[in-house]
Amino acid sequence: MALPKVGSIGEYIREQRQQAKISLRQLAAAAGVSNPYLSQIERGLRKPSAEILNQIAKGLHISAQALYVQAGLIEDRETPSDVVTAIRADTHLTERQRQVLIDIYESFRKEKRAEDEQTSQNAHPRSGSVTDDEQSLPAELRAALEPYAASTGNGTVNQETKEG
Amino acid sequence: MALPKVGSIGEYIREQRQQAKISLRQLAAAAGVSNPYLSQIERGLRKPSAEILNQIAKGLHISAQALYVQAGLIEDRETPSDVVTAIRADTHLTERQRQVLIDIYESFRKEKRAEDEQTSQNAHPRSGSVTDDEQSLPAELRAALEPYAASTGNGTVNQETKEG
DNA sequence: CCACTTCGTTTGCAATTGCAAGCAGAGTGG
DNA sequence: CCACTCTGCTTGCAATTGCAAACGAAGTGG
């Protein structure tokens, strides 16, 4: 009754926060809201007001619009949610640059899908291996780059080692 | 603290309503909110939640974004570009991927600008030393990569680390 | 083992939202 | 003059937001 479908936005916030690898309290502090309230928001127990939403967006360094859309407070059509379309429509880019951007973008989406399956590795600070924290970025980019650097044509961007 | 400066949005709503030549009650009905509450909102005595704001926007047949901007709930930034907005709004990317994409994009824009001496209304206070004569794609991408591949200390990336 | 820290969560409670009902003023017209 | 209708505004009140404080769990270190 009191929570129709606020869950989606809570999940989204939590997802974004965990991807940013910051704790609930950290985000709460960055957003200027209380920790317990953020906890309740993330679990869909509370429906944050627009102000809170905006602050959380800032704390997450994401677009407030993204949050509003997730919360169903903005019609999707109002936001250019299509990255590829936006890139294609950008007149400041050369055609080549457009292609590169689109390719990298699509490569990212592919990796994101693959990465979503292994979201369980919660590491604690300064306790051991850093592994894929800082290495994944260049890897992702290099992978996306290859087809252009070598002009190979088609390259699958997967080199991860998951499950065994 | 008891009287927030929501006056601007109230004024804006009232303006829009009068421009549409409808009464307060009519708009209240169309928006699905109570008349007295709308009255208080218009006079800045109440701070409506995002939901109410959205409903009012619908009742006024105006963009919800316009209202959010008026309410200060969306940073009406310089509208960096549709591409950046789209990337920021993309819920399928991780934050890091977003940053990388935006970085690459801005790197492209930078190079394009250097190549194209067509500065119109831009004031980007950043010193780019990546002016390559060659326009080879790998070069461009490497430029965008450098902050990540080398070290994550110094990079002219868009960092909004303002503390309030 | 106990102090110390960090994590997310639960528990009251003040402050606020948002509404139903009612108030005051300005037209209309019988 | 009174009834009716429109305008916007004020008054209680239930429900909700949002926070301070405290709680259990899990890790670190003396």
Give descriptors for this structure:
homodimer, 164 residues, mainly alpha, 434 Repressor (Amino-terminal Domain), 2 domains, 0% strand, DNA-binding
Structure summarized in a few sentences:
Two copies of one chain form a homodimer. By secondary structure, chain A is an all-alpha fold.
Largest interface, Cβ cutoff 8 Å: A-B, 60 and 52 residues
Quaternary arrangement of the chains shown?
Answer: homodimer
Tally the helices of chain A: 8
CATH domain class of the largest domain in chain A: Mainly Alpha
CATH superfamily of the largest domain in chain A: lambda repressor-like DNA-binding domains
Instruction: Indicate the CATH topology of the largest domain in chain A.
Output: 434 Repressor (Amino-terminal Domain)
- The CATH architecture category of the largest domain in chain A equals Orthogonal Bundle
- Main β-sheet description of chain A: none
Unreliable segments of chain A (pLDDT under 50, ≥5 consecutive)?
1-7, 117-140, 143-164
Helix vs. strand class of chain A: mainly alpha
Count of β-strands of chain A: 0
Shape label of chain A: elongated
Binned, the helix content of chain A reads 40-55%
Write down the secondary-structure element order of chain A.
Answer: HHHHHHHH
Round the mean pLDDT of chain A to the nearest integer and report it: 67
N- and C-termini, Cα separation of chain A: 44 Å
